[in-house]
Write the structure tokens for this entry.
Amino acid sequence: MRSTSPLPTVPPAERHRGRRTWFMLIHVGKGLAGILGLVLLYEGARATGILPRDTIPGAHSIATTAVRELLDGSLTTAAGDTLQAWVLGLAAACAVGVPVGMALGASSWADSLAKVTVEFLRPVPAVALVPVAVVSFGLDIIMQVFLVGFACLWPVLIGTRHGVRAIDPLMIDSARMLGLTRRAVLTRVSLPATLPAIATGVRLAASLGVIVAVAAEIVTGSPGLGQYLTQAQQAGDDAAAFASVLMSGLLGLAVNILFVAAEVRVAGWQQHSTEGRR
Amino acid sequence: MPEAIKGRQHDRQATGPAAATLLEARNIAKCFSHPNGTVTPAIGDIALSLAKGEFVAIVGPSGCGKTTLLRCLCGLLKPDSGTLSYAGKPVSDVPEDVAVVFQEYNRSLFPWLSVRRNVEFGLNKLSKTERRARAEEALTRVHLTDVIEHYPWQLSGGMQQRVAIARAVATQPNLLLMDEPFASVDAQTRIRLETMTASISTELGLATLLITHDIDEAVFLADRVIVLSPRPSSVLAEVVVDIPRPRTELEVKAMPRFQEYRRLIHDLIVAKQSDTPDVVDTPAPDGTEPERSP
Amino acid sequence: MTMHETRKAPPKGVPFRPRGRSRVRGLTVVRAVAGMAVFALLLFAWELAGRHDTTGLLPPFSDVAAEMAAILTGERLTTDVLPSVLRALLGFALGSVIGMTAGVVLGWWRRLDPWLRPPVEFLRAVPTPALVPIAVVAFGAGNALRVWVIALGACWPVLLNTMDGLRRVEPGYIDSARVYTSGRTTAVLGRAALPAALPQITSGLRIGLALSLILMVISEMIASSSGLGYLILQSQRLYALTPMYAGVLILACTGWLLTLLFSAAERRALVWFEGMKGRNHA
């Protein structure tokens, strides 16, 4: 067990504010150097021909195009569209996944009943359902929400179920012994205990949702970064196409960072245990 | 009247049964620096030596860096300063014929291997039949032959620690280091394990260095007890335990001599202890192994 | 001196077998059957809905099943279904190798971490489907390309989980390995760190497998004229809904089967892990 000790026991030799900031700057600097290295690698691949130079634009042109498109709005709108479908899909997935997951986790009978169905539906790639979704909902945003929702449902559901099942019965017993009513046990013990697992599930779902949203847009042409990409390609504007890929990457990164931070907030108290792997 | 030899031992040969000095440490110091810039001294200035076949116990208050010291002595951690030599050569990584029994058996025995495989782990260089023979021999010494195909996590704490001891003994080491091996075990089991350790150590003529916070254990098992000061630790005193072997638990603990040694060491520790607050696990420092609570 | 404090020990020579949650064997069977019954009920509901469907959007299950059989016994098996699955598996294998190698490097040599983490995090955040159209334009749409795209997408969960798994290895195992082996990196890594990280690594492999299937479908929907994904998309465009649903079901079954096989293999490799978990839970 590691608790960060808030105090060194002996009057510390050095403890300058300056020293700490210096350390942080170095850390950030290394990260930036790493990214720079990546860009150099990319340009190197272009220069040597591993990446064909005529179809793959240089880093500089991608960057300028991206900035230009962002400022004039088209890339921003596309990003907004993707985000919209993603948010709604993720919300729908949570709205269904958390209650169902809790039910499955709490009742082992319900779990057995649903097991075969869940195990069968789970591995279905959401993108395989694109045609089904198009047929059922047309090209409206509801189609995208359905796809993102379907893909995001499973990590949330499985994560919640896992969290409920992992609750230590000893905790429940202790709570009961202390006189809590059944309802209070649920809200004050079970729910907080499950929250970390739910947070992990939602985080995985969030990243997956971005991928599915973009993929659906590429295949169906519904508004968003994916559509922007295919349109740019058709127009022959490779730099813009790459700019949209860059944007999707940044979006995915932002989503990931956000949800990791949220997860740490919610689950920071939890010890790493072998049960926690997922 | 038992006497404590106060202060450090740097210029003297190891006391105890005269034999070649196996382990020699001088001016060992270790500090941990944290990413946020603070520096925590763990060991101040330690000097000690160990002769072949000698059983030495190191006692000290909580938080004085005992585990850090052990890790420096066996080569797992590099001290900031000082010299450390094993069998005449300077220590860089863990020497071939040194074995260690760690405090937490469930975090040092490998859960994916059976008891047999765990004990055979250090014997890779031998042929298969030799490995099996040695493993069985070691497990016989610790009386665990009936669980040889089990997994360690299927066993109780005491049994797991015995597996750890078997693993160490199977490699036929010249030096055995033990880091509070019986701290995580219940009191009755602890006594049985102590007796077992004493007999194994004597039978094999093994040089043993035991880190413990239990003064009774230290006096019962050791030829010599080294008492450490609180952090940053240094050697407060060395107490030669002049109780003849073989030592049986009931007999020895009833001896007035035993009580005197005990009292002496206890007083030494308590006298110094009042100045230092308690410490919890410090966070993993930058680039080096995390300090575990000693 | 023996201390009989072990849990129910298996007889000598028998490897440890983890128990299910239900104590009574009979009950487990009943539950399994009940689960299958529920699933069958859903299929039955589909059948009914299809029969009474007036919009023409939902063919009954029996029709779809018949179409499935036709596809699987006809020539489309060898021209579309099997090549797709093969591509997915090849991509998965390639991606796993890349992912594990990179994961070991990044997970073991932690000094590299501040340098390499940001670019890795960025690369992994780029949705692989977005790279498919670009890759097609750059390299042309061939089999090799599709396998590579699948590999480069599927390697990320493997990489991240390998890296994470190695970092979370109990320091005690590393210490023990340093004491009881030659101490060289290959020994410590191979004999202690990797086995300890295996549960986490297989978790990543499982996600990678699912991702391989997804990427296979996407790459075929975007840039292919054959394969299972193409079949599904093409059917939709032609409004031939029965083959479309049939294709989706075949895909679902393939995914389910592969996952089943993977789980079985995983359980065998991680017998010890299941046992440990069981102990902690009980």
The radius of gyration of chain B is 19 Å.
